[in-house]
Specification:
alpha/beta; UDP-N-acetylmuramoyl-L-alanine:D-glutamate ligase; Protein-Tyrosine Phosphatase, Chain A; 2 domains; eight-stranded mixed β-sheet; 17 strands; 17% strand
């Protein structure tokens, strides 16, 4: 039976603006935080804010796994969600229940009813109250906040924190962050507060001067992620990935070299926090981060399905480096991208793949209409505005030795993820096909 209060609250939250109707800034979020939590509740020495273009969520999920293995109580705040808004706020690796989410919303709203927040801002305040108030859960030992967009003006930057992580930098959201890597980096470096400790993935050469300037201005301590090597074992159709560092070798749940790079960044921060990573390498295979080259484990598909929400050119490049490790006879890709994304830089590399059929679709949020794919429509094997229709068509074509990939947008990944898990596609929707 649906939770009517939860549905009502989600409707209220989603009705809030995505972008503020005021100049960019975090003061409004700070005002709300002061109303919901006394200053004595904050734990800036145990709070880390994670910014970057790609890999933020993977680093956050890895840190969650490591700190839990070390015996800490951990709060994790991420975005966007795949199936349910409750995924965004996790305590000890478990997302809030719908009832808990409703309780948090009631408690927060009772204190900030006069403050006008955006969708992301109120969720950020709810996460902070969940982690630090000690009301619904014990106060966390470690709080991990993933930046939503950029850094300087992001609501997570209003959370008191002495630790920052900068993951891989690249081009995304240029309409908001700027058209050069230096401009983009400048916004993301905005999370670095006075005296902070900063762990970062290797930075592009063109932002080195800016990084040095920010380090000097903030009197912060910067640590680049430790060197690593990675390898792949290919005993079955599904590859196994490993990372080797100065602390030893561990098997990864995160796929490919990008998974290894994000793991190296997380391990560097974990070591800086006072733990010996050697003792926890076995936990890396337990990292739970859905929608990032995630294999769907249902039985109704004629072949393996992988969800990979790569939504910018850098993400697609790393995806292409991954794909050769996944054995298949033919690859079917269902792709939909956001209307503000770099269409050609995302789409073109996918069409260059051999033995591949591309099906274009529309994402359920901020999606690019099919008509805006222009000449790519003529090159695609199929095009359907409704993602479920595209997936059903692929089911009719694919055979057991093929592979299906859903990519281009986390919103598309989440939409089809939910439909598959809800049973919206029944076994009778496809023939039981064998390869010939």
């Amino acid at each position: 039976m649906p939770n009517l209060e939860y549905l009502r609250i989600i409707t209220e939250i989603e009705a809030l603006g995505i972008m503020p109707d005021r100049p960019p800034g975090i003061q409004t979020t700070r005002d709300a935080l002061e109303l919901v939590l006394p200053s004595s509740c904050w734990r800036p020495d145990q709070t880390v804010v994670v910014a970057g273009t790609n890999g933020k969520g993977s680093v956050c999920a890895t840190l969650e796994t490591l700190f839990l293995a070390a015996g800490e109580t951990v709060g994790l705040y991420t975005s966007p969600h795949l199936e349910s808004t409750t995924e965004r706020i996790r305590i000890n690796g478990v997302q809030l229940t719908e009832d808990q989410f409703c309780q948090v919303y009631r408690e927060v709203q009772a204190r900030i009813s006069e403050v006008k927040l955006t969708h992301f801002e109120i969720l950020t305040v709810m996460a902070a109250w969940t982690f630090f108030s000690g009301t619904l859960f014990p106060r966390v030992d470690r709080a991990i906040f993933e930046v939503g967009l950029g850094g300087k003006w992001d609501a997570t930057n209003a959370i008191p924190h002495h630790h920052c992580i900068i993951t891989q930098l690249g081009y995304d959201h240029q309409n908001l962050l700027g058209n050069t890597l230096t401009e983009i980096a400048s916004n993301k470096f905005g999370i670095i507060q006075k005296g902070a400790t900063v762990v970062h993935s290797p930075l592009p050469d063109e932002v080195a001067a800016l990084a040095g300037q920010v380090q000097q201005e903030t009197a912060s301590t910067w640590l680049q992620s430790i060197p690593f090597t990675d390898r792949v074992e290919q005993q079955t159709r599904e590859p196994q990935f490993f990372i080797s560092t100065q602390w030893g070798e561990g098997q990864l749940a995160l796929a490919g070299r990008r998974g290894a790079e994000n793991t190296a960044t997380a391990l560097t921060y974990f070591n800086e926090a006072g733990y010996n990573p050697t003792l926890f390498l076995s936990k890396l295979k337990d990292v739970n981060w859905k929608g990032r080259m995630e294999k769907w484990t249902g039985t109704i598909s004629p072949c393996p399905i992988y969800f990979s929400g790569d939504h910018n050119p850098q993400g697609v490049k790393s995806l292409l480096r991954l794909l050769p490790h996944y054995k298949r006879k033919h690859l079917y890709i269902i792709v939909g991208i956001g209307k503000e994304k770099d269409r050609d830089q995302i789409i073109a590399p996918l069409f260059d793949l051999s033995d591949t059929s591309i099906f274009l679709t529309e994402t359920p949020f901020k999606g690019r209409p099919l008509r805006d794919y222009d000449h790519w429509m003529n090159l695609a094997r199929g095009a359907h505005a409704e993602p479920l229709v595209a997936l059903k068509e692929v089911f009719k074509l694919a055979c057991s030795e093929d592979l299906i990939l859903i990519t281009g947008s986390l919103y598309l990944v989440g939409h089809l993820h939910k439909l598959l898990n809800d049973g919206s596609i029944a076994a009778m929707d496809r023939p039981n096909q064998l390869c010939h």
